[in-house]
EAL domain-containing protein (Massilia agri), 699 residues
Amino acid sequence: MSAVEGPQSPVAASAHALSLELLLQNLPGVVYRCLVDADWTMEFISAGVEKLTGYPPSAFLARPGVNFATLIHPDDRAAAERGVALALQQGRSFQLTYRIRCADGSLKWVYEHGAAPPEGGGRIIEGFIFDYTQLRNANMLVYEQASFLQQARDAIIAMEMNSRITYWNSGAERLYGWSASEARGKKFCELLCENLPAYHAAYETTLTNGEWSGELSHLRRDGVCIETDTRWTLMAADRESGAPQKILVISTDISERKHNEAKIFHLAFFDPLTDLPNRASLLDHLRRALLGSARTRKCGALMFCDLDNFKYLNDSQGHAAGDMLLQAVARRMEHCVREADMVARLGGDEFVILIQPVEDTREGAASQAETVAAKVVAAMAAPFQLAEMMYSVSVSVGVTTMCGTVDTVESTLRQADAAMYQAKACGRNTYRFHDPAVQAAWSARAELENGLRRALRDEEFVLHYQPQLDRSSRVIGAEALLRWRLPNGKLLYPSEFIQALEESGLIIDIGRWVLRTACAELARWQRWPDTAGLTLSVNVSASQFTEPDFVPMLQQIFEETGVQPSSLKLELTESLVVSDFTHTAHTMATLKQRGISFSLDDFGTGYSSLAYLRKLPLDQLKIDHSFMRDVLTDQNDASIVRSIIALGDSLGLQVIAEGVETPGQRQFLSDAGCFIYQGFLYQHALSAEHFTQYARMVH
Ligand code: C2E
Ligand code: MG
Ligand code: MG
């Protein structure tokens, strides 16, 4: 419209009408004016109606003509009429969408926006109708897709790159318990993630690869942790819609699957009766243990445990009693092994224990297995309470050691089984080793321990006394040395039994006997002028010295024997001093107050530390006889001996040499400044009687 031609000018008015007509004609839609009557009688309808419906405008304006209302799909007609009536009643405009049937029979969706203009007095409606089919179809597609997302079983979530949730479907509502309105705007990582490092890892991967998938545990609203199978996809920013870059997260709840998997795993690898690993599981673990052993060269062990006379219980008391016993046995067996080891049930009354390969040698593994086997046999000793009944059962155990470089699953199982039959053959309620050498060693050891117990009971131990002399070859004291006189008269030396005493713990009882016997002998010496000034050295093992009641025990011996403790010297070894310095130093100090003196035995063979030496209330260093043997020919030994003597001097400690066998050795020692000697050059250890005779003689 030009600025100089106003609407009042007739030329301008006709030009205006013309352009309006043109506008109406070209309008991609229909403008109308109709009466509010039953037929919606048209007063005006624009040319676009022909394009929309296939009927020319004249068809609607003719009387009678086409009634627009009749074109409305019967299903939509009532709603459309209701919509118009309500709007008119409320004096506002109306918006409708409905279908029309066109002249060619096709259906179209239309959108109509109309109102009753105020000047029409409520009798006229004007409005605009346009073809909405395409838009509606597109809308429907979007709507349908959105409803797919909504109805999906999976939880579908969109989050911005800062973890803020922007979309949350019904699946997410169901899975996590938060409604969409509660979840939107919250941070994904704060709302759901129990394991933040896993979240960050997924995030990083999504950033670099565009996607990530895997299993994540998520927290539900009620705090329960659920397992999900999750896929993250990076969605690029959409320039058109202005949507920023986001991550789409689709999660499926796999808690039930996980639970079922665990159940299936349990069924496949555990015995339902005892809940112990079953045969399949044992074979798997054994195979792995052997593979590991082949790699690490460490040794382990396998033990077959078979209940003795189990069939009798089953036959006499029924299977329920048998089942109860098996369950109780399983629990006791589990208590006999370390956490890494495994108790499995093969079936029936057969159990297997796998001792993991962690030992350097077969002997080490055998020793471990022996401890466990002894525990298993002992664990069955107490009767089992089966409902109302008490029942006793024993077990036969077959043990074999294994090393992956030599043994296989089959050979290991076969050997343990064979050893178990040997245990049965040996009267049941015991264990046997498959390896003949190991078995022989253990039998000998068991025999030795039994013998030592008997020796203590039957007083087969004796003390012999080896003289200690000064530079003028005068006896100044003795060392008490333990001997075992067998019933057949044979005399055994400590090297044959002292280790067994230590390892079996018998050393405590025997050490007490040694101290009592030695003190009684010393008390006797003290009663005779010829021997009254002699000192007596007694060897005390580390385990005995650290016993909590060592001091009171000694005190009691002093009282019983009436000995003067000032002539008693205790020989301690370096290992004791090193292993528990504080406690040792304290006990030494207490005993020192009673007048007892201390000698450090086997000096130079252990972890000698000057710091320890200085801090302990020692009186004497004892040069070990291993240095004496070659002192005249070996420069190293000679230097060590000289250093020990010099060290003793500088610390103000007396130095005694043991193992002095030749005059040459003695000369060497005196040249180096050591003037107290013990050794075969003078005497072997003598019986108490012979010692006193000897002492009087060289007095
Ligand atoms: P030890 O305390 O170092 O005892 C010295 C060992 O050297 C003794 O061996 C002794 O007989 C031996 N011996 C003495 N003179 C010579 C010699 O000139 N040449 C050689 N080659 N050896 C000599 P034994 O009696 O066989 O005792 C060995 C070890 O047993 C002792 O070493 C000591 O550690 C331990 N032992 C002995 N009696 C007892 C005891 O009553 N209690 C404890 N806990 N251990 C003891
Ligand atoms: Mg000694
Ligand atoms: Mg010694």
Summary: The chain has a mean pLDDT of 91.
